[in-house]
Amino acid sequence: MKIAIGNDHAGTEYKFAIKEYLESEKVEVVNYGTNENSSVDYPDFVHPVAKDVDNTKVDFGILICGSGNGVAMTANKYKNVRAGLCWTKEITELTRQHNDANVICIPARFTSIPQALEMVKTFLATKFEGGRHLNRVNKIPMCI
Question: In the CATH scheme, what is the code of domain 2-138?
Answer without folding.
Answer: 3.40.1400.10
